[in-house]
Amino acid sequence: MTAPQTLTIPALTAKIEAIFQRARFSAAQAAAIAPVIAAGERDACKSHGVYRIEGCLRSLKIGKVNPGAVPEVIASEGSIVRVDAKGGFSPLAFELGLPLLVERARTQGLAALVINDCFHFSALWVEVERLAAEGLAAMAMCPSYATVAPHGGSAPLLGTNPFAFGWPRPDGAPYVFDFATSVAARGEVELHRRAGTPLPEGWAVDAEGQPTTDPQAALDGAMLTFGGHKGSAIATMIELLAGAMIGDLNSVEALDWLGTTAVAPKHGELILAFDPARFAGGRRDPLAAAELILSGIEGQGARLPSGRRRAARVISEAEGITLSAAEIEGLERLARDGLAAVP
């Protein structure tokens, strides 16, 4: 009988990578995807951990994602770096564009990485943390597929449309936040459905536009934006900047193209990188100035965003990642049967 297991981060990463290779993803695609999923488990972000594997593989099983995609830099003039993901998942395209994005941000002060034609499942904090580690401030955003009603509406039109920000800190972990513009990530609703637990009130409406705490009714209906009209406005901004402006799909078009929400969404992504020193122009040390705010927040006993994830990461790095018996069984089934294990 399968039992819970505790795995080191490298061991879990290798297990995930082998699953994707078993499902006919290229070695490069699998090697880029696996650490991102493992990072979700490492940081106790279950909605972006091993739960995501099946949806990624289903994208291949229904013939949508390109498992052997080789991303290509198709524009790197000026401050805009554009990478065509060629219908593959976004992590490999991000890895290709990252060095150019960092170099352009340092030489020009501000640069943008546009990723087109990608499938996307990953948390954006993974990307902004990478840029903060280079001493850069960063923003990342992307649409999704239409599962969220605009404020005052009752039917899906917007995506969960995540937005992330990272700021480097000289003597510690970067300041990072990453949130869906819906009340919660869609993965959180699915986890409630699997667990048979009700949703908090205010998360969703059913297919008739009535408030619901039933996860299945929410999945059949629409999620709501956080903060009412404020979240709705930010979600719309992301549709415009990371959809229309970069020449890629908006959330309605992504759902129309896929025909289902049971797979990873397909669209584009926009990542912005800023060099704080270039923007400050020598007037003052921007990182030191930022610490007045950030240390002030901590000094009041308030928790900075990502504090919970950071604490979980310390434990995972020291003690490993514990997966439930059901999660281990699922990984073993996928490793053994490949796409045949995906409904």
From TrEMBL:
InterPro entries: Mal/L-sulf/L-lact_DH-like_ah, Mal/L-sulf/L-lact_DH-like_NADP, Mal/L-sulfo/L-lacto_DH-like_sf, Malate/L-lactate_DH-like. One of its GO terms (molecular function) is oxidoreductase activity. SUPFAM superfamilies: L-sulfolactate dehydrogenase-like. Keywords: Oxidoreductase. PANTHER family: MALATE DEHYDROGENASE, OXIDOREDUCTASE-RELATED. Belongs to the LDH2/MDH2 oxidoreductase family. This is Ldh family oxidoreductase. It comes from Paracoccus suum.
